[in-house]
Design a protein that fits this description.
0% strand, 4 helices, mainly alpha, 81 residues, single chain, 73% helix
C-alpha cells in the first residue's frame, strides 16, 4: 500500500506547490516573530508567531492558508508598535 493510487483511495492527497510554498513562508515568518517576541518580552508577538508556525497543520485549503496567514501577519504588523 505504498503506491500513490492506493493512498489516494484512502483519502490521502498531496498538497499543491502553492500550499507548500505558503506553509514554508508563513512558518518562517512565524519563527522569526516567535524569536523576536521572546527576546523582546512581547507575549502577543510570541503567540502570533506560534500560531503562524502551526496553523498550516489544521488548514487544508490553499486559499484558507493564505487568508489566515495574511490575517495573522496583519496582527503582527499592528502589534509592532
Amino acid at each position: 500500500m505504498n503506491t500513490l493510487p492506493g493512498l489516494q483511495s484512502l483519502g490521502f492527497t498531496l498538497p499543491s506547490p502553492a500550499y507548500l510554498f505558503g506553509a514554508i513562508v508563513f512558518g518562517l515568518i512565524g519563527f522569526v516573530a516567535w524569536r523576536y517576541g521572546r527576546k523582546g518580552r512581547r507575549p502577543l508577538t510570541q503567540w502570533l508567531g506560534v500560531a503562524l508556525m502551526f496553523y498550516p497543520y489544521a488548514v487544508s485549503r490553499t486559499w484558507l492558508l493564505y487568508a489566515v496567514g495574511a490575517a495573522l501577519c496583519a496582527g503582527l504588523f499592528y502589534d509592532r508598535g
